[in-house]
Predict the structure of Phosphoglucomutase/phosphomannomutase.
Amino acid sequence: MFPKPKSVLAPNTYAYESEPMVKATGFREYDARWLFGKEINLMGIQALGMGLGTLIGELGQKKEIVTGHDFRSYSSSIKYALISGLLASGCKVHDIGLCMTPMAYFAQFELDVPCVAMVTASHNDNGWTGVKMGANRPLTFGPDEMTRLKEIVLGAAFAGRGGGSYEFHDNFPSRYIADLTKRPKLKRRLKAVVACGNGTAGAFAPQVMEAIGCEVIPLDTELDHSFPKYNPNPEDMKMLHAIRDAVLENKADLGLGFDGDGDRCGVVDNTGEEIFADKVGVMLARDMSAIHKDAHFVVDVKSTGLFVTDPVLQQQGARATYWKTGHSYMKRRTHELGALAGFEKSGHFFFNAPMGRGYDDGLISAIAVCEMLDRAAGKSLADLKNALPKTWSSPTMSPHCADEAKYGIVDSVVKHFEDARANGDKVAGQPIRDLVTVNGIRVTAQDGSWGLVRASSNKPELVVVVESPVSEQRMRDMFEAMDSVLRTHPEVGEYNQKI
């Protein structure tokens, strides 16, 4: 008998040490994320492991699972608490130790194991923890699995039968690195800044990029779980500006920035200008569709409209499907459609064969960018970027909004713009040309300028992105139009960054 988790327990009490605490909001759309100590305790993590093992059994999957953890001061202890729950539920656990998230995904294939539980809070600030889970490689959980997992854990409805077993796979990273680097070396000697924000990727990214033929300039690759300079997040302008400075100082061909768990990659060109990941996706789509006939790509709703309007992609017969933002949604859709690749503005890229196995891996993305440059004889990354039709794009901007309130506010914003279109009202001074509501709302004006509002899937935030093919001012007009609607809701707080 295992006690039902409580939503709140006071630290430094008998109850906190003897009962599980699990806040319900930590079960998000496709990942689990909590503030460790405030929203979940170690016994709560144990309950999560028991619940995950129970769910794996319900799904009819073999009870065998890969575990690993990212580089934070508390991640290994959380992983071992999770493992204790998995063992209690009868799982055979394959532990690969400290690793990047894509290394855990790779281990599912390499070790022929169906399930995965990667302890990571990705790019979230210190204090956060979480688990990325899946039971059908290369896919990860979606809302249905997360809802059922939440029911099992919060109701303590565990099918605990014991009989689990544990195996640690020594020096597993060498197998992952060998798999990534068994490809022809680059013909072109590229000088690359490799930035890791002192996160997990620092232990692996420099040697991988060196092995494919790059001259590596390491930047903040020393492991330091205090993240002394900036959060390892390649959407964060602080990280991008640090990469810019290193590129210019070293006259590098490009800069590559990896997030805290290594499944995303940010790119800075040889002039020091950051290229938002959706534009990198368009460049890669051009390169790949020139090689692969009738290429199909999946892109998220935060991404540039160039995937549909770019004349080179049109000429090469490439087509794009827009889909929900979120690594789990995008991975699943790319898999279902058999697309060549999926691109998300956050930097999660999903390559199917021949480039990858369908999961998101920041190092595979970095290799794809380098191989694109290798094929573009005599051209710099800035040349490839400048060859795209000009658009003005914002970074991802996130105003604070409580988990309990954010989805209701997004529903209200959707209704606002649906009513506006029905009434013939204008947005940013122009008629509404199109609304996409597959994930929040993407509002496109008559001139092609657009703005998006959606709820963050893994933090108490909303997400706002704007773009215009016309001018910077029109991009700003769209931001004002979206933000003015959000400001009617007092629950919406300050932005993490703004244009």
Observations:
- The mean pLDDT is 96.
- The first strand starts at residue 32 and ends at 35.
- Residues 183-389 form a domain with the Alpha-D-Glucose-1,6-Bisphosphate; Chain A, domain 3 fold (CATH 3.40.120.10).
- The chain is about 35% helix and 20% strand.
